[in-house]
Q: What sequence folds into this?
């Protein structure tokens, strides 16, 4: 059981110099097991902060976050994370990056190697096992990051604008790969983005956040009924209508966010 | 970088007394130096370290005062400072000129820059004996040593700075009708200034090293000579005073230069 | 590894350019000497210096001097490297250590550390110990600064990824922090080595002993200008070789680093 529960989560950002800033204000949200939820909002609304709190990278000071009923207490391989700028270990090859988490789990050598190879092939990087991240394109690096996180088979997948650093075509390809991976081995996913179309396309539900201090304004169901896939799906009325609805919600907040930016 | 690392203390909320807090923070920050000074005083006094090897801070301070009042500190200090001013000053003028010219005129670049980059790793202190052969035992060889050691860092940083100036800036200026010469003076040199200033800071540190090293070896004037003379004569507390004085000069020169650099480069974020 | 051979090819071209530049330099030297603008004493001609170099090389004096200088330089450098990295990493990770050493390092860095030479001579005598320690004292500062910065500035997300994948607190330093800091640490070492050589030569010039610094001072005292020039050429070559060796080591060690990859 990997349901996630946020209850009245508040967070204040305290820089070493300067004023404290209220980043999140009373965020409450329930994520069901195996659900794909997108956190959508303008820059600075705190959606990444919420993700980092869930990941255990920042301590929860106010409110509660529980996973499967237990409160979050530090990072764990159960809540795998993928960052926008890949965060790969540059001194390790593709294979070594993916092996790392498996080594930490104490998996015996033969099994590790096998599992790593599986995931390298899952993200279509066969042949690049011994390349270093600096030799790979952005899209390839992100695939390594995803493989590295998935290899330890987390129950929950956290994604922090993972495709934001990629060009449009690569991003579209990555969407398809992600959906394919999710179909094979469904997980609970919390996906942060500011791209409305991406949110509607990938997610079951989208939680729209306000400008700073962030709170959940509305939760929209974006499970699409159509049987179409890929390009076709993007052209349907259903898709357009959902995007339109969300865009209106986000736009006002985006304008507000612009005004309050220091 | 050390400035940023220093203050882990919590910033007081608005309404607290910022001046007091800042003063307290400064004391906390420099406390280790105060502790070192205290140790320097206490250890030789109680015999933890032999006072012949490490005279207590009070003895050094007394000796320093003696050197100041009998004029030897001032006259030697002035001598050393002149060496640096002239040697470094020349290297700056020649260095910036050469570096920028190399960056601006391709044939000069092709000819000179491989040579310059090859000579860069040579220890400039090794040139001191040549300078002594050429310029004798007096102040001339010191100035020449400082000049030869400081020249390349200034040339290199001027060169890199000038080359690093955004091409589009240069093209815009040329497009607006400015002559190549005006572009050189009004776009390239200001653009190269940050890197040039960083190179000069480097050269400043080198100038002190060469000044001291050359004065240790030969000559009758300067702080290096003074330290060496006191050491040979066994007057160790005064010797320590001399060492501290030179070190303090080096540190102060760097700090003052840093302030100058920040003022001159204010337009840069 | 196609990329590496591309870099090697470019390096060969650059070396050729450097040699060409060197030829111009020696030609200019020789022409100036032959024009007799300066006396034979002030500027010995290239063949005279070359002959002297050759003579010292065969007699073994030159190699012996180079060896002594290099040994002292390397021992001092090694001390500075190990001590500097250990200290720099500790400063980055332990607040108390940082509090103590921050002002010491920032005051010590711009000081002309050679000024402490007479103190080292007082404490450790005029033989190798004081030279080696002086070298270490002078070259440790850039290592500390770079090791500190490299460890402190590790990408937050890389750290978090490692934590998420289950790294323990004790293994974090060896498995993540040090490899991530290595490029900057190595830069510190690359800055420190020439400093070590300079300081060692200054020590030898001051204290004697049979390294290159001592020999060049002896020749100077005997007004043996071909000898002085010969040693300068030798020292210059040694300096160049050291820097080149560090560059090669860096390329092999940091093959994964993005700078080495850009052709």
A:
């Amino acid at each position: 059981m990997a349901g996630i529960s946020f209850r009245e989560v508040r967070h204040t950002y305290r820089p070493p110099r300067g004023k404290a800033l209220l980043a999140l204000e009373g965020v409450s949200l329930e994520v069901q097991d195996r659900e794909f939820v997108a956190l959508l909002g303008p820059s600075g609304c705190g959606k990444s902060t919420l993700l980092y709190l869930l990941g255990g990278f920042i301590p929860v000071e106010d409110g509660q976050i529980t996973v499967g009923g237990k409160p979050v207490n530090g990072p764990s391989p159960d809540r795998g994370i993928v960052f926008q700028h890949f965060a790969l270990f540059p001194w390790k090859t593709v294979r070594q990056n993916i092996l790392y988490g498996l080594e930490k789990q104490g998996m015996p050598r033969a099994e590790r190697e096998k599992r790593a190879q599986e995931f390298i092939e899952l993200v279509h990087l066969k042949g690049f096992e011994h390349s270093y991240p600096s030799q790979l394109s952005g899209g390839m690096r992100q695939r390594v990051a995803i493989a590295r996180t998935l290899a330890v088979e987390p129950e929950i997948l956290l994604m922090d604008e993972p495709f934001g650093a990629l060009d449009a075509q690569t991003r579209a390809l990555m969407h398809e790969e992600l959906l394919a991976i999710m179909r094979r081995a469904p997980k609970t996913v919390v996906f942060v983005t500011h791209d409305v179309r991406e949110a509607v396309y990938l997610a079951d539900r989208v939680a729209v956040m306000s400008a700073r201090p962030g709170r959940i304004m509305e939760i929209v169901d974006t499970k699409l009924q159509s049987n179409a896939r890929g390009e076709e799906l993007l052209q349907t009325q259903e898709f357009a209508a959902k995007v339109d609805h969300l865009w209106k919600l986000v736009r006002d907040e985006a304008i507000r966010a612009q005004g309050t930016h220091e | 970088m050390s400035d940023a690392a220093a203050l882990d203390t919590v910033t007081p909320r608005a309404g607290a007394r910022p001046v007091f807090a800042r003063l307290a923070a400064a004391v906390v920050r420099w406390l280790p130096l105060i502790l070192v000074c205290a140790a320097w005083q206490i250890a030789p006094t109680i015999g933890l370290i032999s006072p012949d090897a490490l005279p207590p801070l009070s003895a050094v301070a007394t000796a320093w005062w003696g050197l100041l009042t009998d004029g030897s500190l001032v006259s030697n200090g002035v001598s050393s400072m002149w060496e640096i001013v002239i040697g470094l000053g020349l290297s700056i003028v020649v260095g910036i000129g050469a570096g920028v010219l190399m960056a601006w005129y391709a044939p000069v670049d092709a000819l000179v820059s491989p040579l310059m980059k090859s000579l860069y790793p040579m220890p400039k202190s090794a040139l001191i004996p040549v300078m002594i052969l050429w310029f004798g035992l007096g102040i001339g060889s010191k100035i020449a040593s400082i000049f030869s050691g400081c020249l390349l860092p200034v040339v290199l940083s001027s060169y890199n700075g000038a080359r690093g100036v955004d091409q589009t800036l240069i093209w815009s200026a040329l497009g607006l009708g400015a002559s190549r010469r005006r572009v050189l003076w009004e776009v390239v040199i200001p653009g190269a200034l940050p890197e040039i200033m960083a190179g000069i800071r480097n050269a400043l540190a080198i100038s002190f090293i060469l000044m001291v090293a050359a004065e240790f070896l030969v000559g009758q004037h300067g702080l290096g000579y003074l330290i060496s003379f006191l050491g040979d004569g066994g007057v160790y507390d005064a010797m320590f005073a001399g060492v501290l004085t030179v070190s303090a000069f080096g540190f102060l020169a760097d700090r003052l230069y840093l302030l100058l650099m920040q003022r001159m480069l204010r337009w840069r974020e | 590894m196609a990329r590496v051979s591309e870099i090697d090819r470019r390096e060969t071209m650059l070396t050729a350019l450097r040699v060409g530049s060197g030829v111009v330099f020696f030609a200019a030297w020789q022409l100036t000497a032959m024009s007799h603008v300066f006396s034979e004493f002030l500027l010995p001609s290239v063949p005279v210096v070359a002959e002297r170099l050759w003579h010292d090389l065969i007699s073994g004096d030159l190699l012996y001097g180079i060896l002594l200088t290099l040994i002292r330089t390397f021992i001092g450098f090694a001390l500075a490297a190990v001590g500097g990295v250990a200290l720099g990493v500790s400063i980055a990770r332990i607040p108390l250590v940082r509090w103590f050493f921050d002002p010491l390092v920032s005051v010590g860095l711009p000081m002309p550390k050679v000024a402490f030479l007479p103190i080292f001579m007082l404490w450790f005598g005029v033989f190798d110990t004081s030279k080696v320690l002086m070298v270490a004292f002078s070259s440790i500062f850039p290592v500390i600064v770079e090791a500190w910065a490299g460890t402190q500035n590790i990408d937050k997300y890389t750290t978090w990824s490692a934590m998420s994948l289950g790294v323990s607190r004790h293994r974090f330093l060896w498995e993540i922090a040090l490899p991530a800091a290595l490029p900057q640490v190595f830069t510190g070492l690359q800055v420190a080595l020439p400093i070590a050589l300079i300081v060692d030569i200054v020590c030898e010039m001051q204290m004697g002993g049979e390294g290159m610094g001592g020999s060049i001072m002896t020749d100077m005292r005997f007004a043996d200008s071909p000898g002085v020039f010969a040693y300068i050429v030798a020292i210059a070559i040694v300096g160049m070789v050291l820097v080149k060796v560090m560059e090669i080591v860096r390329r092999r060690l940091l093959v994964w680093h993005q700078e080495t990859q850009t052709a």
The first helix of chain B runs from residue 2 to 6. Residues 183 and 257 of chain B are 28 Å apart (CA to CA).
